[in-house]
Structure formats: C-alpha cells, structure tokens
C-alpha cells in the first residue's frame, strides 16, 4: 500500500456488502441479485481493483433506475449441448449471471472435462479476478473473457478511431504456493482508470493514449475531443500489434461465439462473455497439473529480483494478500467513492457505514 492509501479510513467488508445491497434494492433491483452484485463489488475492492469494485456502484444504480439493468427475472437458454451453452442474459446483472453460469459449468466440467458458456446481452460484470477465485478453489483452470459491444475506446494498432473496449481476459488456476489469478486487458489501461484520472484532472505517468490525430499523450482529457482520443493496445506504439491481436481474440470468444456484438444495434453499458472451465483430471490429472505449475511457481517466486524490486510475485498474489489483510483490518476505499454514492445514500436514507478507525 502506498502512503496515500495508508491514511484512508477502513470499513468493514461485511457492512459494505450490506450497504451496497440495500442501495441496489432501494433502486429497484431484486434482493438476491443485489446481494450477489454487492458481494462481487466489495470483493473487487478487497483484491485492490478499486476501479472495478464499489466504484462501479453509482453507475449500476443509475442503470437500475433508468432500466438499463434488468431488475428481476431470469436468463434465456438459447442453445445447449453437453459441454457448451449460449445464454441471452436479458441485460440482467453481470455478477449474478456469471455466478449462475459457474453453478452450471462446475458440474458439467467435472463430468465432461471441459464446459463452456457464452452469454450475450449481459450487464457489466465488474472485476474478472473475483470469479477466478471460486473456480481455483474448486480445482479448475478457468478462462473468462469479456467485451462490451456498446462501447469503444481502443483503436486497432496503427489506427486512430476506437473499435474495441479494453477487452479483459482472465485465467485462474490452483497452485500449491497460492492460486494464480491473471486478470489483464488487451489495452495498456482501462476505461475506469482513464475516467478516474480525467475526473480528477490527472495524467498518466506514461503516454498510454492517442489524441484524435494519433499522437501519443498521457492526458485522458483527449477522450473529450471530437472525435475522441483512444487507449493504446498492450505493446504501445512499438508492439501494439500484440494487444490488437489479443483484443481480436477476445472479440472472437465473446461476440463471435455468442453471435451478438459490434455488428448489432447498441443497447447500453453491458458485456458479452465467454466462460470456460477445464478439469485437470480429464487431462494429465490434478497431481501432475500441480507438479508442473508448482515447478513454474517455484522458478518464478525464487527468482533473484532485479534492482529496485523486492521480490517476484505471481499474478494475483498481491491481490490475495491485500484481500486477507483487508478482511482482517478493514477495506480502504478510494477517496472519490463515498462522495459519488452520497446522492443515492441521501435519497434512499441509507447512510454509509462508519469507519472502523473513526
């Protein structure tokens, strides 16, 4: 944690979940769905992904009230084969849809070795790493990809007009030295971080963006240009073809396999999703899976660090350590969060939890 975060007030994660749930219910969302969404958002903050935790709640509340997020009901099964399904998410809450998807995929993957689900017309799904934890605990390797065909902020490599979202892709798997949670995107940074810095009048430390003319910049204010600037793909100006390729992979897994994406009319903030679970016992076996992954983990974690680095970490380990610490001592919230939620809290008569260290 940096010095600025060290002085932030801490809050009970249990109380934050209940508060977020009550705000969502007051806005009109089904109570059980509200609980799942609230738990997922707080887990994002616990893992340190504070642009994809409760920071998303103001937008979710606005969409619930405006009808952009479906308040109740169920998904529709469009097609179903033994190891593959397609659902129409009916614009229901993304976290609820993914948890229901895992309920279906876990037994299917145990039986058939691999099980995959595509979901079209989901609402936003928040922090991808949160879902990886459940799959890894169950002993699965999980791949999760998401795109939003309603939004574009990333240009193809060599271009200047946005085509993609940051297009996150995540993989989680068990490991004896701590489960590995890889949660990355095809772009150098995210919409959430860009929006946060733009609102605060801040710039990035490096030139991760392009202005409307295709010139590199670190100023997220370029998104207010007409036409707007864009986020660079992973690899930046020199090797952005790699991020471009990764973005196309995500589009194929999501919009391509679901049959719903950028070729269709826009419906509002949301997601198209692909979830696949692999059971190691259907391949070389869990024992040999762990033998291989543990050897790699040892080679990485015991690797001599370069100057300025205290130690090598595996993806997700810092987040899991932050989660354990914040579960025990309280969650540090970004300073912009409570002011953003204050209008909803005041209108619904639901005061924020008191800080633990007040």
Textual characterization of the structure:
This protein is an alpha+beta fold. It has 2 domains: 8-188 and 232-348, Malate/L-lactate/L-sulpholactate dehydrogenase, NADPH binding domain (Ribosomal Protein S8, Chain: A, domain 1), CATH 3.30.1370.60; 189-231, Wheat Germ Agglutinin (Isolectin 2), domain 1. The chain is built from 11 helices and 12 strands. It has helices at residues 3-6, 13-27, 31-46, 57-66, 94-112, 128-137, 191-200, 236-258, 286-301, 317-329, 337-348; strands at 10-11, 76-81, 84-88, 114-122, 141-147, 168-173, 180-185, 209-210, 216-217, 230-231, 271-278, 331-332. A 7-stranded mixed beta sheet has the order 2-3-4-11-5-6-7, with helices on both faces. Helix 2 packs across helix 3, helix 2 (13-27) packs parallel to helix 4 (57-66) and helix 3 (31-46) packs across helix 5 (94-112). The longest helix has 23 residues, at 236-258. The chain is globular, with a radius of gyration of 20 Å. Residues 1-5 have low confidence and may be disordered.
